[in-house]
């Protein structure tokens, strides 16, 4: 009897995975499809990821050898793109930046610059300004179905993380005030963070496939 129940549960999981792969669009698109308050739910979802990005910035660890702190923001940015889709994911990060430019305390703590627009010209400005583009890339790949399985979800989020590192290191090397040059930018803005960010992606990449299985189970019933 127990074996029969396990086979039934395994079959349900397999059907849910197969169903998830066949569903079009993003997680948010499927969740709000046919719901009367669709517009309000979309707006609330964008606001949620703005708040999560701001909250993730407060969980920051300053490192003595670099002006770039370690935060949970990249994981939240990429998850937001995957869940919301490219346009809403990008919009959430643009809104986050606008709140920071307006002076709200949504950026990570910094001993160099205060909260506000000046933060965008400092050492971390490139990372911050890359968030909308990273969310767009992750969301575009998710919209094409790459967030349904773990390995493809990992690939989509890795592409988004590459955008963040490219923007952050390029800005730190050539455009920040002060600019430090490419070698120093790599040493202080890339190498110390790669391993930990990959570990975070290994965790985050399993979230969207799990959510898709849950949505598929609901829609199947």
Describe the structure.
This protein has 221 residues and is an all-alpha fold. Helix 1 packs across helix 10, helix 4 packs parallel to helix 6 and helix 7 packs antiparallel against helix 9. The longest helix has 26 residues. The chain has a single domain, classed as Arp2/3 complex 21 kDa subunit ARPC3. Helices cover 71% and strands 0% of the residues. The radius of gyration is 19 Å and the shape is globular.
Break the fold down into its secondary structure elements and pairings:
Blueprint: H1 2-22, H2 27-32, H3 38-58, H4 73-84, H5 86-101, H6 125-143, H7 150-175, H8 182-189, H9 191-204, H10 207-220
Reported CATH architecture: Orthogonal Bundle
The low-confidence runs, each spanning 5 or more residues with pLDDT under 50, are: 8-19
Work out the count of structural domains. Answer: 1
What percentage of amino acids are in beta strands? under 5%
| H-E order | HHHHHHHHHH
Radius of gyration: 19 Å
CATH class: Mainly Alpha
Give keywords.
221 residues; mainly alpha; Arp2/3 complex 21 kDa subunit ARPC3; 10 helices; globular
Quick structural gist:
The protein has one domain: Arp2/3 complex 21 kDa subunit ARPC3 (Orthogonal Bundle), CATH 1.10.1760. The protein contains ten helices and no strands.
């Amino acid at each position: 009897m127990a074996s029969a129940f396990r086979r039934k549960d395994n079959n349900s999981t397999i059907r849910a995975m197969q169903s998830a792969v066949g569903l079009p669009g993003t997680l948010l698109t499927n969740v709000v499809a046919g719901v009367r308050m669709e517009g309000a739910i979309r707006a609330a979802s964008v606001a949620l990821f703005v708040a999560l990005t701001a909250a993730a910035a407060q969980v920051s660890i300053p490192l003595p050898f670099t002006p770039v702190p370690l935060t949970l923001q990249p994981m939240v940015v990429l998850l937001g793109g995957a869940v919301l889709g490219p346009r809403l994911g990008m919009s959430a990060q643009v809104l986050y930046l606008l709140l920071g430019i307006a002076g709200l305390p949504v950026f990570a703590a910094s001993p160099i610059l205060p909260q506000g627009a000046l933060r965008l010209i400092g050492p971390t400005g490139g990372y911050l300004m890359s968030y909308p583009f990273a969310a767009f890339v992750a969301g575009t790949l998710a919209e094409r179905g790459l967030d349904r399985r773990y390995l493809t979800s990992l690939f989509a989020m890795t592409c988004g993380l590459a955008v963040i590192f490219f923007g952050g290191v390029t800005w730190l090397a050539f455009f920040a005030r002060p600019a430090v040059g490419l070698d120093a930018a790599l040493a202080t803005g890339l190498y110390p963070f790669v391993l930990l960010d990959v570990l975070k992606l290994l965790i985050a990449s399993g979230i969207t496939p799990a959510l898709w299985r849950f949505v598929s189970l609901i829609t199947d019933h």
